[in-house]
């Protein structure tokens, strides 16, 4: 029941294959924690956080939903897209499949979300890979130009092994190179970052980048007709003031 | 009507001969085919609708596929046919009618309808059509009622999505909106995914709009089902709870109850919250809001700060409002067990009804702290003790709920210590002071009225006071040490002192005058007073002329005192000494000895307390363990253990649960002999609280074992009865060993704790007399000796532990040897005794 202390509320959704680390990213963002063995029944599927975009001196409240990644729920996942201002498309850098599948996820977003939704591609679990996250760093050890079927097959075996005894897993080989993902993001008009829910690397950054993008759109007047259901601006007078809440909801 | 006759005419064959329903329905079903004209199909559906109730079987068997086709093809085109076909289908699937076969066929047709996702998906899409919304919703509700999980899984894949649901919640037509709430209530049940997506789509906002539009808690049934939906979206759903607190709605919950959201600690709650007009609808709606508040207060992941207004609201409602008693009970029970609320810093204004104003006028009482009001509520009951004597179940539930909140509140050692300490009189060697009399202390120490008839209200006050005082002392050596110093001030007797000289008709003499705390020069400690009151109550209960009911009241006194004393004396040799010095031993022995068949509670508890006294009688004094030992032998250990076993079987003890300590009165077993007074049909009574039951269950075994130890033995003597025990009861011995080890460790730990306490206080004094070196030196010496005492008890403990280990090894050897021997015996064809063989079986099971 704390007072409103934000300029904007942005609704975010996080999608991608199961087990790529969506829930982990959310927990990392909101609680600064990482759970090696998250309890899937616990259902931490919503989280919120205040972030500041320094250039604009604006406080943004992020409301993030981790959508259920199961194929069977796709229909319902779509309703989240409709209401979102930002979208994190997450894959696991050690799982080629999870990256490939993002095409379908992105197609879904394109089809159902607001045309102005800001998307950011997030390659998660970089902590599992050898090299530090590059920004224009050297080529990763695994070949990325011609991913063949055998490599993705081997990854399945590896990952199933790892789930059996996660504590013993030290490192897995990267199956999606930074460059490849960056290129695809560029082609599709997505922001891009590699991150790790485990180490915390770039997690908040991903949300800040996407939020900055949304703010740019707001400044350009994209949402002037108040079309995006995922953006809410605090009322002129009630911003940063306590107690306005009752009024605004009772007669909403 | 005209329509029906037309149809029937049309259906009557060329001869005009009447047809059987089967023939009619078969013809009508044929007409559902897309080949016929829309008008004919419409007529056929309407006829079938008319027949569906009376000829459900036939319509279902013959027309269901055709009806579904009509639904898919025509419902969107023609509202009339759409409405009719939906209503027909709804009738066919209805399972509310419990007449023979009807339920079964309802389920059967439902299963046909939900065999694939097609119909369900279609229905959710059809919600967009505002003309057939109502029958669509009704049909969906029926389907959800019959096969909820299937419909829920279809909903998750329905292209129409949750948006359609939110839209119907906004329908301007009340009927439709209300039906939508009913449907949503079923749809979200036990499905976190659906709950989450509806919350995302704005269901909370829509539901609260409905609630406020309807008039909040005064909004009757509609508000009630909307609130039920809100509850359903939140309960067991972490994500939605987190999201909910992100919205602007949490303060609305307070506002709905007229409770100010931002009420600082110093401000008292407004009267418009405290005093309201109540009716059953309002009570139901308020109860839902209170339930939601309690859920949010109790769930993890919410900052205390955030839920503080809810906690305050629940407390104010329970302690200082005219809300119905059921709501107050609910509010108290929902306060979290780890209640972290400054009860003593909040001031509130309790109210009492002005007599004969039918609850319309209220008097304001003096401002009190929430803690005082809580204690007052527990000890005297609602509205300053109005009706306290009636003992309705509800009022006892309220008072014990208050006592439980108190129990949770004093769980923190510093809090209980502070409360007990505040009852200790200031130290003044010249003129010994009395304790400040608090309501709790007063109710606790007031002597039972032995003169005239017992006042039920007094009995219950004292009883609840013993429960609450136990919460303060249980397993806190510090609190017990402070409590020993309490010297209650002169107690205002609730009844005329003079009447104490009243001699009962049967000639039993009044209590000797010396038992009265009249001797002002020699003030008694609380422990002495309680011992005396116990004795008084035991004497009175054995008076022959007491009625059953009166005897039961005396038993209640006795039980209250015994339970408190058991928990007080447990692990506390100094308190045991005080009790024995006050004559406690004699008080206990008599009731154990004079056993009657009917009564198991009092002798059992007396045996228990006697065992505690024996076990923890470790202070030098007049009455030593050697004094008690022969008494125990005279009574016989078997008899004592038997009494305790009987106690454990008593219904009054057995029926107590963590959340149910108020029992029905009269109990089923006493129905014939004790008649309830007229007009007290829902009368209840209390005997034990869960804390005591728990205490007893954890410790009775230790007490039983203790009876058999020799006076000069430490509480756990490893070598005792070795030979006897080896004789076939080694499993018993093993558990006995560990129980004793626990006990020994506990008692040593207690010694250490006491010594630490003493060191603490010595150090405090050390600071005070900093300059006086000689004193310091002396104290240091004391500290040293305590240290060495500590070390020696530590060594002793280790020795005993070692001894036990050796014993276990020995035992193990003996056991395996015995087993080998037995095997050999069997091999040799000799018979091995039954129970020994059983023993062996048990062993095998365990391995
Ligand atoms: N090493 C590593 N493991 C991660 C990371 N993020 C998630 N995981 C693990 O991946 C598994 C799946 O994560 P979860 O968050 O449940 O994925 P979700 O199904 O997409 O929500 C869990 O065992 C996580 O501990 C990461 O950044 N690094
Ligand atoms: Mg997840």
From TrEMBL, chain A:
Domain of life of the native organism: Eukaryota
Name of the protein in its database record: Ras-related protein Rab-2-A
Classification lineage: Eukaryota, Fungi, Dikarya, Basidiomycota, Agaricomycotina
From TrEMBL, chain B:
Residue intervals of the Uso1/p115-like vesicle tethering protein C-terminal domain: 742-847
Database matches in SUPFAM superfamilies: ARM repeat (SSF48371)
Residues in coiled coil: 745-803
GO cellular component term, pick one: ER to Golgi transport vesicle membrane
Stretch list, region Disordered: 817-847
GO BP annotations, alphabetical order: endoplasmic reticulum to Golgi vesicle-mediated transport; Golgi vesicle docking; intracellular protein transport; vesicle fusion with Golgi apparatus
Major location (coarse): Golgi
Domain Vesicle tethering protein Uso1/P115-like head: from-to ranges: 369-705
Subcellular location as annotated: Golgi apparatus
Keywords: Coiled coil, Golgi apparatus
Acidic residues composition bias: residue spans: 832-847
InterPro entries: ARM-like, ARM-type_fold, Uso1_p115_C, Vesicle_P115, Vesicle_Uso1_P115_head
Pfam families to which the protein is assigned, alphabetical: Uso1_p115_C, Uso1_p115_head
Name under which the protein is recorded: P115 like vesicle tethering protein
């Amino acid at each position: 029941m704390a007072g409103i202390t934000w300029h904007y509320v942005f609704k975010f959704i996080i999608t991608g294959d199961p087990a790529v680390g969506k829930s982990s990213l959310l927990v990392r963002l909101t609680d600064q924690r990482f759970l090696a063995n998250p309890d899937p029944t616990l259902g931490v599927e919503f989280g919120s956080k205040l972030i500041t975009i320094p250039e604009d001196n604006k406080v943004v409240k992020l409301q993030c939903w981790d959508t259920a990644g199961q194929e069977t729920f796709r229909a319902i996942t779509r309703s989240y897209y409709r209401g979102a201002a930002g979208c994190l498309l997450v894959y696991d850098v050690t799982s080629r499949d999870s990256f490939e599948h993002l095409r379908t996820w992105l197609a879904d977003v394109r089809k159902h979300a607001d045309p102005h939704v800001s998307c950011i591609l997030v390659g998660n679990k970089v902590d599992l890979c050898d090299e530090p996250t590059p920004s224009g760093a050297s080529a990763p050890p695994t070949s990325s130009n011609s991913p063949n079927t055998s490599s993705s097959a081997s990854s399945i075996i590896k990952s199933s092994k790892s789930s059996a005894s996660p504590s013993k897993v030290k490192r897995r080989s990267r199956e999606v190179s930074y460059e490849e993902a960056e290129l695809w993001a560029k082609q599709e008009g997505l922001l891009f970052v590699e991150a790790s829910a485990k180490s915390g690397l770039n997690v908040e950054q991903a949300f800040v980048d996407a939020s900055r993008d949304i703010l740019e759109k707001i400044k350009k007047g994209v949402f002037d007709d108040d079309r995006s259901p995922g953006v809410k601006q605090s009322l002129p007078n009630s911003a940063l003031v306590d107690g306005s809440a009752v009024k605004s909801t009772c007669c909403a | 009507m005209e329509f029906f006759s037309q149809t029937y005419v049309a259906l009557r064959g060329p001869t005009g001969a009447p047809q059987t329903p089967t023939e009619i329905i078969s013809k009508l079903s044929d007409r559902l085919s897309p080949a016929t004209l829309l008008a004919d199909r419409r007529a056929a559906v309407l006829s079938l609708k008319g027949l569906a109730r009376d000829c459900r079987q036939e319509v279902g068997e013959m027309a269901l596929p055709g009806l579904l086709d009509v639904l898919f093809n025509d419902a969107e085109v023609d509202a009339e046919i759409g409405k009719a076909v939906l209503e027909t289908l709804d009738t066919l699937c209805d399972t509310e009618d419990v007449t023979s076969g009807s339920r079964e066929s309802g389920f059967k047709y439902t299963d046909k309808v939900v065999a694939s996702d097609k119909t369900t998906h279609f229905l959710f899409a059809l919600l967009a059509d505002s003309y057939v919304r109502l029958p669509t919703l009704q049909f969906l509700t029926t389907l959800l009622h019959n096969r909820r999980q299937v419909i829920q899984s279809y909903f998750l894949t329905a292209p129409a999505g949750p948006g359609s649901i939110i839209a119907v919640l906004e329908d301007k037509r009340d009927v439709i909106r209300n039906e939508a709430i009913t449907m949503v209530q079923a749809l979200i049940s036990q499905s976190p995914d659906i709950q989450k997506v509806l919350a995302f789509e704005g269901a909370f906002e829509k539901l609260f709009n409905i609630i406020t539009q309807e008039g909040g808690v005064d909004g009757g049934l509609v508000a009630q089902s909307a609130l039920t939906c809100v509850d359903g979206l939140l309960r067991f759903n972490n994500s939605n709870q987190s999201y909910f607190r992100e919205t602007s709605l949490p303060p609305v919950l307070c506002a709905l109850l007229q409770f100010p959201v931002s009420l600082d600690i110093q401000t008292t709650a407004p009267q418009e919250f405290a005093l309201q007009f109540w009716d059953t609808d309002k009570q139901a709606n308020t109860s839902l809001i209170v339930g939601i508040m309690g859920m949010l207060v109790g769930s993890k992941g919410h900052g205390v700060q955030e839920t503080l207004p809810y906690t305050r609201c629940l407390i104010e409602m329970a302690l200082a409002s005219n809300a119905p008693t059921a709501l107050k009970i609910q509010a108290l029970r929902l306060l979290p067990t780890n209640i972290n609320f400054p009860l003593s810093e909040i001031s509130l204004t309790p109210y009492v009804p002005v007599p004969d104003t039918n609850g319309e006028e209220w008097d304001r009482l003096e401002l009190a702290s929430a803690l005082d009001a809580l204690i007052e509520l527990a000890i005297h009951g609602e509205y300053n003790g109005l009706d306290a004597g009636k003992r309705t179940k509800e009022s006892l539930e309220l008072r014990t709920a208050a006592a439980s909140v108190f129990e949770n509140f004093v769980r923190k050692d510093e809090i209980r210590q502070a409360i007990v300490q505040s009852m200790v009189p200031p130290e003044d060697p010249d003129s010994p002071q009395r304790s400040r009399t608090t309501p709790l202390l007063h109710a606790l120490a007031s002597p039972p009225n032995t003169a005239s008839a017992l006042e039920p209200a007094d009995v219950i006050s004292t009883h609840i006071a013993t429960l609450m005082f136990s919460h303060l002392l249980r397993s806190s050596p510090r609190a017990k040490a402070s409590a020993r110093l309490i010297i209650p001030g002169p107690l205002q007797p609730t009844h005329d002192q003079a009447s104490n000289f009243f001699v009962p008709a049967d000639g039993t003499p009044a209590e000797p005058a010396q038992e009265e705390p009249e001797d002002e020069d020699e003030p008694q400690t609380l422990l002495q007073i309680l011992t005396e009151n116990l004795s008084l109550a035991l004497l009175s209960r054995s008076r022959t002329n007491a009625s059953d009911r009166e005897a039961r009241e005396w038993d209640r006194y006795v039980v209250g005192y015994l339970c408190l004393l058991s928990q007080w004396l447990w692990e506390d040799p100094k308190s045991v000494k005080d009790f024995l010095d006050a004559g406690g031993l004699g008080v206990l022995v008599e009731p154990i000895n004079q056993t009657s068949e009917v009564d198991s509670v009092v002798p059992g508890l007396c045996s228990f307390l006697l065992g505690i006294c024996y076990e923890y009688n470790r202070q030098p004094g007049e009455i030593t363990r050697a004094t008690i030992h022969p008494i125990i032998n005279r009574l016989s250990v078997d008899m004592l253990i038997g009494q305790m076993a009987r106690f454990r079987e008593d219904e009054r003890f057995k029926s107590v649960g963590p959340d149910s300590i108020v029992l029905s009165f009269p109990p089923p077993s006493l129905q014939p002999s004790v008649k309830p007074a007229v007009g007290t049909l829902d009368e209840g009574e209390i005997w034990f609280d869960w804390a005591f039951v728990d205490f007893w269950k954890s410790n009775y075994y230790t007490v039983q074992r203790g009876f058999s130890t020799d006076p000069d033995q430490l509480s756990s003597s490893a070598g005792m009865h070795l030979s006897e025990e080896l004789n076939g009861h080694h499993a018993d011995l093993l558990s006995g060993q560990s129980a004793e080890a626990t006990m020994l460790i506990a008692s040593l730990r207690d010694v250490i704790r006491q010594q630490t306490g003493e060191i603490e206080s010595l150090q405090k004094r050390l600071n005070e007399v900093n300059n006086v070196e000689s004193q310091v030196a002396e104290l240091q010496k004391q500290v040293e000796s305590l240290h060495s005492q500590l070390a020696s008890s530590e060594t002793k403990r280790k020795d005993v532990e070692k001894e036990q280990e050796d014993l276990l090894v020995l035992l193990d050897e003996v056991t395996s040897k015995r087993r080998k021997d037995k095997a050999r015996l069997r091999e040799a064809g000799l018979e091995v005794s039954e129970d020994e063989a059983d023993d062996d079986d048990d062993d095998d099971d365990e391995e």
